[in-house]
Write a structure and sequence with these properties.
Blueprint (H helix, E strand, L loop, with lengths): L6 E6 L4 E4 L3 E4 L5 E5 L5 H12 L5 E15 L2 E9 L2 H13 L7 E9 L13 H5 L7 E3 L2 E3 L7
Parallel strand pairs: 1-7
Antiparallel strand pairs: 1-4, 2-3, 5-6, 5-7, 7-8, 8-9
């Protein structure tokens, strides 16, 4: 893969989404990660790379990403909306938009992180998670609030 096809994506992992009238959508995290991707990067590769950089492998998982998608460009003003990314196909939209909107040099994502639930049902960083124990993918059991919920792995 040629290096000129690789580019940086800012991944916000704390913060929220703000709606503004002039620019549309803005992410509030002041300390985003920089992750290098290319058009062949899969959703799972992006998740793995982000969790590895944060040191949260096995403790957190990405429920979904929100993409700050450019929708219009008038003069020097770019208007953004928000698109949910949860699959390889969704991620391809970001690559396509990058080609269509060269004015937007650095795409931005906001990651919604949730705890990985251990075999005992608690959110403990030092125990084996259900996905590892069952041998399934990284899309495993999750905890939202204090109630454990099981989300089956999606087979593609």
């Amino acid at each position: 893969m040629a290096s000129e096809e690789s580019f940086v994506v800012l991944v916000h992992h704390r913060g929220s989404i703000k709606r503004k009238t002039r620019s549309g959508v803005k992410f509030t995290d002041k300390d985003p990660l920089c992750i290098v991707v290319n058009p062949t990067t899969s959703y799972d590769d992006l998740v793995r790379s982000m969790l590895m950089k944060l040191g949260l492998e096995g403790a957190k998982r990405v429920k979904k990403f929100f993409y700050r998608i450019p929708v219009t460009i008038l003069h020097d003003t770019v208007k953004y909306d928000c698109l949910t990314i949860g699959s390889d196909e969704d991620l391809q939209v970001m690559f396509l938009c990058r080609r269509q909107f060269p004015e937007v040099r650095t795409p931005e994502l906001l990651a919604k992180l949730i705890d990985v639930v251990s075999i005992s049902g608690s959110s403990n960083r030092n125990t084996t998670n259900v996905a590892t124990a069952a041998g399934s993918s990284s899309r495993a059991a999750v905890a939202s609030s204090s109630v454990p919920v099981y989300e089956p792995a999606v087979q593609l």
